[in-house]
Amino acid sequence: MKKGYLYIILSTILFSTMEISLKLVSGKFNPIQLTFIRFFIGGIILLPLAISNLKKRKISVDVKSIGFFALSGFICVIISMVLYQLALLNAKASVVAILFSCNPVFVIPLAYVMLKEQVYKDTIVSMIVSIIGIVVIMNPFNMSGSAKGIIFTLLSAATFALYGVVGKRKSSEYGGIALSSFSFIAGSIEMLILIAISKISFIAALLNKSGLKMFADIPIIKGISLSTIPSLIFIGIFVTGFGYTFYFLAMDETSASTASLVFYIKPALAPILALIILREAITINMIIGIVLIIIGSCITFICNSKRNNIDFEDRDKANFSA
């Protein structure tokens, strides 16, 4: 259990630096290029653990599963993470970190509709409190130039929630590490195909004329130099690769609800790191929003823990009776 909490701490620190590290190199790389690099590296880092888990479960990847990983990779890498990069170009790293951590707000209705999962009263209360926190941070009466960034962040969080809900059934079969690794690699391969298409002259010209310059003639290695390699290593290997690895190891050592503490702590830690590293000011409305989001997260965490304990006790009683 102690090892599990160590993994939670490591994962939280790495995930809390995600937006900051990406913001620091945002001007040096094309956003699509950077997404491709970090998720390809992240998927490869997760691959040995993914293969090991599949061997333990005595299952293999079939053609149908490859199609599923292509779909989940498309939702996660191509849609959600491209929107995420666009969010970072148009909003402060701290705001993106806080709002993206609210993706469970989108998971609840999606899981209810798609998986027919039960929605509890405390879940609705938690969701309402978190939504109020989001609105406070958005500050709709004074959104100024960050409006576009906030919209991109919320769309990214919503599609990432969709990725989580779509992958839930396969996750129970293959495990979270395998799902993430194969989805990341599949999504990166799909992105590589799109990058190749973007280099076709008439398509590049059309995208440029349409004002979509960043999607035209997307580079693969441009910007990679001795000065940027350390940043890419940190983003690809540590933040994306080890960040997800520690998160799933924490889940194995503790439980899914306990490991989710990572996303409850991040909204508070990420703005502090952004203040220290990027000198991003923490406004009053951000502080109020953060507090509301943490309260909403705590309601979910405490109630889920109680339900899990009750289920565990019921199973113990059933086993004892048997």
TrEMBL record:
It holds the Pfam family EamA. It comes from the Bacteria. SUPFAM superfamilies: Multidrug resistance efflux transporter EmrE (SSF103481). Residues 3-138, 148-301 form the EamA domain. Keywords: Cell membrane, Membrane, Transmembrane, Transmembrane helix. It is a multi-pass membrane protein. It is found in: Cell membrane. InterPro entries: Diverse_Substrate_Transporter, EamA_dom, EmrE-like. The chain crosses the membrane at residues 5-24, 36-54, 66-87, 93-112, 124-141, 147-166, 178-207, 227-249, 261-278, 284-303. Belongs to the EamA transporter family. This is DMT family transporter. It comes from Clostridium neuense. The lineage of its organism: Bacteria, Bacillati, Bacillota, Clostridia, Eubacteriales.
